[in-house]
Design brief:
Blueprint: E1 5-6, H1 8-21, E2 35-36, H2 37-46, H3 51-64, E3 66-72, E4 75-85, H4 91-105, E5 110-114, E6 117-122, E7 125-132, E8 135-143, H5 145-172, H6 174-229
Helix pairs in contact: 1-3, 2-3, 3-6, 5-6
C-alpha cells in the first residue's frame, strides 16, 4: 500500500483497531498535520504494537472509511462513515455505487446532482459524493427517526405526568395520586424503552452495511487506478 499521510482522526482510528487486535489500550496522539504509515509503525513499536498490525488496521481503515456516530442519552441514534477515494468516480462507477446502495439497504432512494456534487437519499439514509483536491469523498450517514420519535414521545408523557403527580402527592398523598397517573408513567416508559431497545442492533447492522459498501467501492477504485497507471 502507498505511504500516504493520515489525518488526526484517521490516526486515532488506526491505533484503536491495532490496539484491539493486540488486546491493548488505544494510544491518543497530539494534533498535527498527519502521519505516514511508517510514522505510525514507529510509534506502535514504542508501545509494543507490531508493525504488521498497524498496517492491517490502516488497510482496513482505507477500505472501510472513518466511522462516525450520533448519540442521544448514550444510545447510538445515528451512524455514518466517511471514506476518501483516490480519484473522482466516473458516471458508470457512480451508477454502480447507487445500485450497490439500493441492494445493500433494500431501498430505491432518490438521486440528485448539483455540479460536482452527487447524492443518493432514502429518508434519513444519505450517500453524499463530493470532489476533493486529490479525488473524491463519500459520506454515508443515517438517523433512526422512528426510535427517536418513540423516545421523545415517551419522555414527553413522563414529563407531563410528573408535574401533576408531584403536586397530587403533596396534596392528597401518593396512594391517591398514583392510580390516576401511573398509566401515563408506564406508557411513557414503555414507549421510551421500545425506541431505545432497537437502537444498538440497528446501529450495528447499519455500520456493517456501510463498511461493506465503502470496502467494495475503495477496492474497485484502487484496482482500476492501478490498472490505468500501468
Amino acid at each position: 500500500m502507498t505511504d500516504r499521510r493520515y489525518s488526526e482522526a484517521e490516526v486515532a482510528e488506526i491505533f484503536r483497531q491495532a490496539a484491539e487486535a493486540q488486546q491493548s489500550a488505544q494510544r491518543r496522539l497530539p494534533p498535527g498535520d498527519g502521519l505516514t504509515l511508517s510514522d505510525l509503525q514507529g510509534i506502535g513499536q514504542d508501545v509494543g504494537i507490531p508493525p504488521d498490525l498497524i498496517a492491517q488496521a490502516a488497510t482496513t481503515l482505507e477500505r472501510g472509511g472513518l466511522p462516525a456516530s450520533r448519540r442521544f442519552l448514550g444510545l447510538p441514534l445515528g451512524v455514518g462513515r466517511t471514506v476518501e477515494l483516490p480519484r473522482p468516480l466516473t458516471e458508470a462507477e457512480w451508477e454502480h455505487l447507487v445500485v450497490d446502495l439500493r441492494d445493500t439497504f433494500h431501498a430505491r432512494g432518490t438521486i440528485r446532482s448539483d455540479g460536482g456534487l452527487r447524492e443518493w437519499t432514502n429518508g434519513n439514509l444519505q450517500a453524499l459524493l463530493e470532489p476533493t483536491p486529490t479525488g473524491a469523498r463519500l459520506r454515508l450517514r443515517t438517523l433512526n427517526g422512528n426510535a427517536r420519535g418513540l423516545m421523545l414521545v415517551g419522555m414527553g408523557m413522563i414529563g407531563i405526568a410528573l408535574g401533576p403527580f408531584i403536586a397530587a402527592v403533596l396534596t392528597v398523598g401518593a396512594e391517591a395520586a398514583l392510580p390516576q397517573l401511573l398509566p401515563f408513567l408506564l406508557g411513557g416508559g414503555a414507549l421510551f424503552g421500545l425506541g431505545a431497545l432497537r437502537l444498538p442492533r440497528w446501529a450495528t447492522a447499519r455500520r456493517r452495511q456501510m463498511e461493506e459498501v465503502t470496502a467494495r467501492l475503495t477496492t474497485s477504485t484502487s484496482g482500476r487506478l492501478g490498472a490505468g497507471q500501468e
